[in-house]
Amino acid sequence: MTLGRRKLLLIGSGAVCAHALGCGGDSPQLSPVIDAGNEADVATGTLRAVPRKGVAIGRDARGIYAVSLICTHAGCDMSQDGAVSSGSIQCFCHGSVFDGQGNVLRGPARDPLPHLVVTADASGELTIHGDQTTAADTRLGT
Ligand code: FES
Asked: Probe ligand 1: pick from 70, 96, 104, max atoms within 8 Å of CB?
């Protein structure tokens, strides 16, 4: 099989999605109630994806926070097609990279990842509210 010049240009420009599902088209909707485990299990200096929920939960020196993992470029769910750590959030669809706070480090994405409201019950069980965004400096209980 040979590829025509046009197809090679599309591939070279990054216009071809690396994954047939999970990018392009309509962005997935986040659930309004997402179980994110217990606050005792979220160590300072960590950020981890909640598997297949499109969100990440983390803790920095200021407290616990949550960030959307729906890529602001074309809607890939980075909890499925990405890599998440406190240092970076990578989208496997077209290569965007965000820092652990959701700020864009490398495009094609231009916009940061929204932060989401996190609440805890009396026993410390965390809920991320996927339908409620908040300021990037908001932490649990603030
Ligand atoms: S959807 Fe394109 S870089 Fe993430």
From this structure: 96
Per residue in 40-64, pLDDT (tens digit) is 999 999 999 999 999 999 999 999 9
Low-confidence ranges of the chain (pLDDT < 50): 1-22
Q: Yes or no: say if 32 and 16 are a contact pair by the CB < 8 Å rule.
A: no
Structural domains of the chain sorted by starting position, each given as residue range(s) with its CATH number in brackets: 22-134 (2.102.10.10)
> Considering only CA atoms, which residue is closest to atom 3 of ligand 1?
94
Q: What are 60's strand-pairing partners?
A: 63
State pTM to two decimals.
0.82
Helix (H) or strand (E) holding 79: none
